[in-house]
Amino acid sequence: MGNRVSREDFEWVYTDQPHATRRQEILAKYPEIKSLMKPDSNLIWIVIMMVLTQFVAFYLVKDLDWKWVLFWAYAFGSCINHSMTLAIHEVSHNSAFGHCKAMWNRWFGIFANLPIGVPYSVFFKRYHMDHHRYLGGDGIDVDIPTDFEGWFFCTTFRKFIWVILQPLFYAFRPLFINPKPISYLEIINTVIQITFDIVIYYVLGVKSLVYMLAASLLGLGLHPISGHFIAEHYMFLKGHETYSYYGPLNLLTFNVGYHNEHHDFPNIPGKSLPLVRKIAAEYYDNLPHYNSWIKVLYDFVTDDTISPYSRMKRHRKGNEVQE
Questions:
Q1: pLDDT tens across 50-102, in order?
Q2: I need a labelling partner for 301 at 20 to 30 A (CA). Which of 23, 177, 185, 292 fits?
Q3: How far apart are the first and last CA of the chain?
Q4: What is the C-alpha to C-alpha distance for residues 126 and 58, in angstroms, rounded to an integer?
């Protein structure tokens, strides 16, 4: 169904990513931005409240009819759980306790992981740091789709299915692109998460467990917030690799929409990224950006020039040091 996308490969580029150069220029002109490179203590309390909110929701749905379990999983739980994955994104950058307490951030990420239902936090951190260092790196950056995704999901209908299944592709893609040895922290993350899931099942029942898992699957699939997966780096305009989003959903996503600003300054917490844009406005105001993640999803599915192949890739240089 729908026209077949004409693109048959990624956009291979032979230049370095633009973020390091822009960061140097901005810091030389606006050194006061360095003062924003500090932890966000409010993040700790926000995450705790979000986890407790989901704990209350687990209790409230345990006796509901199945239709209402699934309704609330999409209408409410999906927003909380997707937002929690972006809180974990913040924690992966040590934004909660700072770089001097790196392990505190790892443990806090495992705590934030609990209502998501599947072990995620430690695994994400290892791969996400590579995404920043080697943006678009072939065989390194697992944010880039596989060749199979680009080849197969090439029509309107197939791209729609790809959007729905995004959480599964993000989960399994690292195993095919850049498998890494399991670390002891990943084992701990997995054991704690599975133990928590078992406790939820035996204490509250199967409906609470399904609510938790469905909230994550639905929230990371066909959902307005999921527009950020595509908006961040899919090449809607030739030559532009990273795009920011300045719409209202930043309020639920720790300003992940400020994505050019984030890649330029990954050590600045999300709450301060609007200040980066304000201070260095001439560097950001003229870059292509979005105001609607829903429109990004619609355009991705319906535009027969865009597909999972619409990403910029770089060949490896051979001297990469991965996380």
A1: 999 999 999 999 999 999 999 999 999 999 999 999 999 999 999 999 999 99
A2: 177
A3: 41
A4: 30
